[in-house]
From TrEMBL, chains A, B:
GO terms for molecular function: DNA binding. Pfam families: HxlR. Residues 10-109 form the HTH hxlR-type domain. It comes from Flavobacterium flevense. Keywords: DNA-binding, Transcription, Transcription regulation. This is HxlR family transcriptional regulator.
DNA sequence: ATTTGTACTTGCAAAACGCAAGCAAATTTA
DNA sequence: TAAATTTGCTTGCGTTTTGCAAGTACAAAT
């Protein structure tokens, strides 16, 4: 897979060139929630991504420095995917998506309770969540 | 165009179902910068969206309550597209994308200067920009 | 030694994309 | 006032991407 050509110099456009498809942010979401995922973990998510699409997205996200692969401590057959610093820095963006969705649609109860926590102290939540994610890098 | 089926109840996934493709956020970007756009204005953007894709996205964004169409004051041949409140509320997200891009890539000079302003007072910038956008609704 | 688990790859049909051309109504120009 | 241009799309069609199912290679468990 060659490097995708960028459509313009616009930061929004360039960002979308990296993670602006239907699946990448869901992969990143899983990593933000679970901290570390195996290939199989991603497949378990509700959206049911196809295995070939998952493989392609993981490769592209890795090529773009958003995620990294590492050995699973328990087994040589497993692979651990994690967010890089660059990936972790997408957390504020992810939170804004949640806040927007919260304003215009009905969220599942578990998400709703986290959102309430975020709304009380957004900066504090981000700082804490980022530091949790950095622990496993 | 029928209503797109949602892949899960996840707020991230549902949001992506609405604007999570390669073009929608660029259309929204144009509207945030220009406040109001004609069909032709969108076509002028650097990324060179195809006319059929543009028409499809505008319809889908309108169906999802992100943008609205109105008559152009100068001409019956022209159409004015604007952001709705729901669309305007994507501004914080758009800003976070810019901040992320600023951190990990080189921005064009004009964007860079706005970003510096945003970094000084993010909340103030958002409040002001939102109110500017609401003026033309 | 055989079965199961894990991380992918491959084949193929269906859908989406992207380019070019076409079109109807409004507007401008001659 | 007739012709040309602008504007906002639509249509056809070849190319690319997606998505489902099946297959494969290696590790691990039985």
């Amino acid at each position: 897979m060659a490097t995708t050509k960028k459509r313009s110099e616009c930061p929004i456009s360039c960002s979308l060139d990296v993670w602006g498809d239907k699946w990448s942010l869901l992969i990143i979401r899983d990593l933000m929630i679970l901290k570390q995922c195996t290939y199989g973990d991603f497949l378990k998510s509700d959206e049911k991504i196809a295995t070939n699409i998952l493989a392609a997205r993981l490769l592209m996200l890795e090529e773009n420095g958003i995620i990294s692969k590492s050995n699973h401590p328990d087994s040589k057959a497993k692979v651990l995917y994690k967010l890089t610093l660059k990936g972790i820095d997408l957390l504020p963006l992810m939170i804004e998506i949640n806040l927007w969705a919260d304003k215009y649609s009905i969220l599942p109860a578990d998400r709703k309770s986290i959102l309430e926590e975020i709304k009380k102290d957004k900066e504090g939540f981000i700082k804490n969540a980022k530091s949790e994610l950095k622990k496993v890098i």
